[in-house]
Amino acid sequence: RDSIIYSAEIYDGNLSIYDARDPSNISLIGRVKTPNEFTHNAWLSDNSQYMFTTDERANSYVTSYDISDPSNPIELDRYRHAPTNGSGDIPHNVYVWNDWIVVAYYSNGTTIVDGSRPNNLVEVGNFDSFLGPDGGFPGVWGSYPWLPSGKILSSDRNSGLYVFEPN
User: Fold this and answer.
1) ∠121-18-63 over CA atoms, to 5°?
2) E strand residue ranges, the chain
3) 117-137, pLDDT tens digit by residue?
4) SS3 68
């Protein structure tokens, strides 16, 4: 966004921010280790002041960061689905849609978290399309929240496509 690269560096466990205004001279602005050091995905808030990440490991978090000073990302909060805490659930992809954080959470389905207060992440919706045991990589791979209708599309690796209308 605006010639800045927000990089989820999975094997290094970093969320990094790079200045790419001069593509022949890309430079590091800031970096932070994510909680489980397997940074799979990163997404900006609409106002570019906050970043949300996932670590694609069992029992990991969706984590929020204040990046208003991109040279110094500050962790604000961590979210993990409480009912399945410790069961091996893996967050895959996180997307920001207005102030909602839409998470493809593999065997825990599609989860919606209120991101309007990034220092207090609270789940406000969930649909678990995978009926098998928690943990591992079956279930929801991705959730797409940007349809003009406001509906969310979720792709479950085991049972197909789901269309949600959050309320």
Assistant:
1) 15
2) 4-9, 14-19, 27-33, 39-44, 50-55, 62-66, 74-79, 93-97, 100-104, 110-114, 122-127, 140-144, 152-156, 160-164
3) 999 999 999 988 888 777 878
4) coil
